[in-house]
Give the backbone structure.
Amino acid sequence: MKHFTSMILLLFLGSYLSFGQLNTEAIDALFSELNNNYTPGAALGIVLDGQLIFKKGYGMANLDHGIPIEPNSVFDIASVSKQFGAFAIAMLVDKDLISLDDDIRKY
């Protein structure tokens, strides 16, 4: 549940942009619970207008080996990508860019 809460909080990161400035201290405070040596953490990247404007790792990637999460950490996401793919398709359908009734060979 804690990780789900963290993911929901990511939706509100836009509020940490004010007048073109990124409030990195507020973002660090948001992830402060994860930023230690004894809990799994998160990698965060913020893209604005196609440009990466913030990247940082919080917490640990591997507790057994003491490996921290860094912005370039590689994660084995397994089947989680299916949900992102389905959401992306749903967004395209919502914008009338594709239809679920189309033959798959069209794409």
Notes: The chain is about 30% helix and 20% strand.
